[in-house]
Amino acid sequence: xxxxxxxxxxxxxxxxxxxxxxxxxxxxxxxxxxxxxxxxxxxxxxxxxxxxxxxxxxxxxxxxxxxxxxxxxxxxxxxxxxxxxxxxxxxxxxxxxxxxxxxxxxxxxxxxxxxxxxxxxxxxxxxxxxxxxxxxxxxxxxxxxxxxxxxxxxxxxxxxxxxxxxxxxxxxxxxxxxxxxxxxxxxxxxxxxxxxxxxxxxxxxxxxxxxxxxxx
Length: 216
Prior knowledge:
Layout: E1 2-4, H1 8-24, E2 34-36, E3 43-50, H2 70-86, E4 92-95, H3 99-111, E5 119-122, H4 125-129, H5 136-147, E6 154-159, H6 163-172, E7 183-189, H7 193-200, E8 206-211
Parallel strand pairs: 1-2, 3-6, 4-5, 4-6
Antiparallel strand pairs: 3-7, 7-8
Helix pairs in contact: 2-3, 5-6
């Protein structure tokens, strides 16, 4: 079997040559199908995860410093194992530096070792940008393209509403609601993250699934 990797014009020429030689019997060729082999571009996978439920017990704490509630801790464990089962383990994690997002990530790492192997960056602007109307999607796009090398195929961004569900909706073109500890799993093709964002544009990322904790 002959495998040819080429442009459309060169393939037409190659096909003609093979057919002519097969028909004439010259060059020892036998008549056989010509197989085209095209390079597959692996999908870029983006997890947009909102932090787990936080506690309001200590009213003296600043919003940035509020910890997770007990229910929030339980929800993280459930979502972590669901992501593992689906095979959506990030190689790069970009997270808000708020206490509740840090604790969400720490529990994920405690439950599934693969989350410890990811490259991690805490980005303080993820906390503030989420409160600014319509700015989160572009902010995430720029952060991902800054930190994600071409060989990284799965990125998880951890943050807050309203920005996170705005970004998920912008990327996918669907109206997405992200309650606490909900994750939107998005996919787009591209040889790099820059190319994936360019080709998909707004609304071109495919929403593969919404991952949620079990209903209490």
